[in-house]
Amino acid sequence: MDRLSTKQRHKKAAIQQEQSDACISSAEREQARRSANMAAIRGKDTKPEMIVRRGLWKRGFRYRLNHKRLPGHPDLVLRKYRTCIFVNGCFWHGHGVVLTSDHGPLTIENSACCKIPKTNRDFWVAKIRRNKERDKEEKKKLAAMGWHTITVWECELTPRRREETLDSIAFTLNRIWLQDHRTEIVYDQKLEEENANSLIAAEE
């Protein structure tokens, strides 16, 4: 009888454990999966960043990586062009999302490339909002220091759009260089004209 009671107790404990495991909600399982994914995400040398680096190197641009002394630690720094490039993940930096607040809590409307999880949504809304605000402040600081900034989004580096995006970055960098050196070019032209005029006057 005692042996039978022991078996029953073990069976009852096993049933209770199964019921306990079944009580774990799908939301909790999803949160655990998402946490594991977050832990696996790298902060640098990501696939989108490598695409940009290789694409610009192939086009003749040279750069430094993750400059620690500049606000935001830009992914690429091109001193010749006074330009910092940020390669941003669409989700983490809220690409295309719309921030709304009708005299209540701040919310985010999803975009085509940034879907806010339904699980623990308030946490993600707050996190993405902070990221967007931080990005904006870092760009302001860089601008005050005389740096141009280019943001490249993950969705712009898909195989279908990749080359077009890289060509656009190269075009922008060259245009920045021309704009920054236009004053020097104009100054040199005026100096040459003044020298030419002074020589003519001397001959007369």
What does this protein structure show overall?
With 204 residues, the chain is an alpha+beta fold. It is built from five helices and six strands, in the order αααβββββαβα. The strands form two sheets. A four-stranded mixed β-sheet has the order 1-2-3-6, with helices on both faces. Strand 2 (76-78) and strand 3 form a beta hairpin. Helix 3 (47-58) runs parallel beside helix 5 (162-203). Residues 36-41 and 198-204 have low confidence and may be disordered.
Brief characterization of the structure:
This protein has 5 helices and 6 strands. With 204 residues, the chain is an alpha+beta fold.
Features:
two-stranded antiparallel ribbon; disordered C terminus; 11% strand; 5 helices; 204 residues
Describe the strand arrangement of the main beta sheet, using strand numbers: 1-2-3-6
Strand and helix order: HHHEEEEEHEH
Broad shape: elongated
In percent terms, what proportion of residues is strand?
Answer: 5-15%
Helix content: 55-70%
Number of helical elements: 5
Q: Which regions are unreliable across 5 or more consecutive residues at pLDDT < 50?
A: 36-41, 198-204
Mean pLDDT across residues: 80
SSE class: alpha+beta
What is the first-to-last residue Cα distance? 132 Å
Biggest sheet record:
4 strands, mixed
Q: Tell me how many strands there are.
A: 6
* Gyration radius, in Å: 29 Å
